[in-house]
Each structure stands twice: as C-alpha cells, then as structure tokens.
Amino acid sequence: MNDTPELNDRRQIFGWIMYDWANSAYVTTVVVAVLPAYFAAVVVPPGGVTIAGINYSATALWGFVSSLAAFLVFMVAPIMGAISDFSASKKKFLIICAYTGCLAASLLFFSGKGDVWLTLILFIIAQIGFVGGNIFYDAFLPHIASEDKMDWVSGQGFAWGYIGGGLQLALSLALIAGHETIGISAELAARLAILMAAVWWGGFSLITFFNLKEAQTFEEIPPEYQHLPPWRAYIKVGIVRTIVTVRKVRLFKHLLRFLIAYMIYNNGIQTVITMATIYGAEELGFSQNVLMITLLVIQFVSFFGALGFSKLAELTTSKTALMISLVGWSIVVIYAYFMNSPTEYFILGGIVGLVLGGSQSLSRSFYGSIIPPWAAAEFYGFYSVFSKGSAIFGPFLFAVILQVTGTARNSILALIVFFIAGLVGLYLVDVAQAKQARNIQHLE
User: Fold this and answer.
1) DSSP track, 178-212
2) pTM
3) Residues 139 and 86: beta-carbon distance below 8 Å
4) Which of 230, 247, 264 is the last residue of a domain?
C-alpha cells in the first residue's frame, strides 16, 4: 500500500479538513463556553482557593493555568516538530496528541465540587494535546495542497471547523438549557456537554487518521547518536535542529518578518476573542443568552468568512486578502467602542465571524507557502510559539487601560494599535524573497 500523499488529492484533503471539524468542538465547548463557567460556579469554592497563604479566585486560577499550558507548548513545540520531520512521524505525533487531549478532556466529566487540582491538571494535559496536535496537523498542509490551492484548502479546514464546533456547541447549550426537561441537574448537563465534546473530537478524528497519509522518507539517525536509545537520539536531533534553525533564521528574513507581524496582529485578535464575552457582560450588561447566541453567530458566520477570504486571495493575493482582513479587525474595535444594544452586539458578532475566518485561515496558508516544505512541522512549531506569544501583550494592555480609565471601551479601542502595526509589518514582507529563501535545503 502506497502511503505517499498526493498534492490536491480529494480524499487526503477531506481527511485533513475533518480534523478541524473534530477538534473545534473542544475549543468552543470546553475552552470557551462551558468549562470556565463550570469551574468558577461549581469546582472552585465561593471564597476561592488559598495557595501558600495567597487567595486566588477562579478567574485568576484559570488565567494562570491557561498561561502555564501555553508556556509548556511554547517550550517544546519546535523540538517536537523537528523530531517529527526527521522521523517522518507527523501522523503518529498527531494521533498521540489528539487522543491524549481527548482522554484528559473526557476525564473532566468526573470533576466536581472541590476538585480544583484535578480539573486544572486535566485541563493542562488537554490543552497540550490540542495545541501540540495542531502543530502536526498544520504541518500536513504543504504536503497535501499545491501552492495555488493552499489558501482554499486552509480556508476549508477553518470553515468546516467553525461549523463542527458550532454544531457541537449548539447541542451542548441545548442540553444545558433543557436539563430540567430531561430530569438532570445543571451540573450534570455541563459535565455531559464536556464529555460530548471530547467524544466528538476523538470520534471524528478517526476519519482523519484513516484518510491522511504521510510520505515515509525519514532520515537515518546521525552516527554520533546511534549508540543512544532511539527516543533519546530523536530528542537530541530535535534539539540540535531547532538550535541550528534559530541560529540560521537570518536566511529566512521575510519569513521572520511575517512571524513578527503575525504575533502583533494576532495579539489583537486573541484579545478580542478572549475579552468579547466579559466586555458584553460587564461593560454593556448583556444577558447570558445574548452572549451565547452571539458566540454561535460568530461560529457559523466564520464558515463564510474563511471561504470568502480564500476566494478573495485567489482573485488578489494571500497577502492582500490578509491585509484586508486586518482592516476589518480595525473596524471591529472601532464599532465595539460605540455600540450599546444587543442588536449591535449581534451585528458585531457577524463582522467578527467574517474577519476571524479570513485572518486565521489565510495566516496559516500564507505561512505554509513560505516555509521550507522539508521542515514543515518544525516551522509550524515556531508558528505555534509565535501564536502562543500572541496571548500576552493584548490582554495586559486591555487590563491596564481599564484599570487607569475605568472603562473597557477605551481598552477595546486601544487594540487598533495591534492591527495597524500588524498591517505595517505584513506590508514589509516581500513574498517573492520569502519563497526564494524556502528553497534552501540545508541548515548546517
């Protein structure tokens, strides 16, 4: 049986897309909608948790643990990518990460009142599995789609991911809203929703693992490491390759420019995503129903945003379409500053959905078109590092401005700085030179 993937093969692309459909359920239900609320309302005692004499609220604990999970992936992502490239084992790493995350997310079903540490540890493991898996999932993109189809395929992945995540979230919210009708408690309904998301992730991933192939072109372990056990030798190779790539990053000047621009504008995007619900609840006083309906609006509109901006990229260029999406994000924060009513919030959700789908899918495909294909997983590991770095400065700026001025409206408007700076950084990326540099075959 030939396991070598063919470019633009419909079965390969379908299998790849289905992983976005599968794991988006975890993000929407577990990470965004259900688990944080359940953790704050049920798991953590009303007075918070005291650690080493310091009292922490549920919100503070959640923030610290989310940062810890991101930091752990930040540290190991490029090394994991380098190992998988060297050993031609992206698919194996993807399977391991996915089912590690699925298992941890499933075990969250057993988290109840007072199970603070159990919940946090399981969430960290699930997050590492999710983010780690995406490194290897993204790294398949240059191997299954030709350069002229990469924007469209990436857009398809995000688009169907939004639909899959949105459908599963709708089922979860319906279960929680109708818990009395079926005779279960609200707590049990929330736990079942989390379990459903984990099962959805693991179940639909089977379609990916059945259809997605990987070329078996792994390299021999260098002679200086052959005396070591294979696992130690692979780790050594992964670390050395990562260090060499960092040292030789000057060879990929315009790729580095894109990564910096991406980190800047993604700071704005991630902050809007993270703070949108609390902005609507605390600053604008909207009900939980308004917030959840808007979240669903964003999920389903993002489907059209991802596909629409992919088509725009075909008519113009990936870089041009991506820059247009950043202009859209600037409009979002200006609009959010002035809005007051739930209707305006719904409209904002629609605009966010359009530009979110476009900016996320085009960032991934644009990056895939300028990286060396022979080290795709390693370079997507760096992409993950810069992506995780995108969740640091935006929320901090938001909080500082809120603290100083007393209104989150000023905080949301200030995020336009990230989108304008990101636009400038993206403008300075020379696509032709970036694509020329990716043909470098060795980094010794």
Assistant:
1) TTTTTT--HHHHHHHHHHHHHHHHHHHHHHHHHH-
2) 0.77
3) no
4) 247
The helix, strand and coil proportions of the chain, stated in percent and rounded to the nearest 5, come to 80, 0, 15
Identify whether the C-beta of residue 261 lies closer than 8 Å to the C-beta of residue 422.
Answer: yes
Q: What is the pLDDT of residues 123-152, one digit of tens each?
A: 999 988 998 888 888 888 888 888 788 888
- The answer to whether residues 198 and 26 touch, using CB atoms and an 8 Å cutoff, is yes
Question: Residue 16: exposed, middle, or buried by beta-carbon count in 10 A (0-12, 13-18, 19+)?
Answer: buried
Which DSSP string corresponds to 62-101? HHHHHHHHHHHHHHHHHHHHHHHHHHT-HHHHHHHHHHHH
Q: How far apart are CA 142 and CA 40, in angstroms?
A: 41
Structure tokens at 399: 């909080």
Instruction: Tell me the three state secondary structure of residue 221.
Output: coil
The whole-number pLDDT of residue 73 equals 73
For the stretch 48-78, pLDDT in tens is: 788 877 787 776 677 677 767 767 776 777 6
The lowest-confidence range among 278-287, 290-299, 310-319 is 278-287
Position of tokens 């079926």? 182
Domain of residue 39 covers 1-247
Question: Do 308 and 240 fall within a single domain?
Answer: no
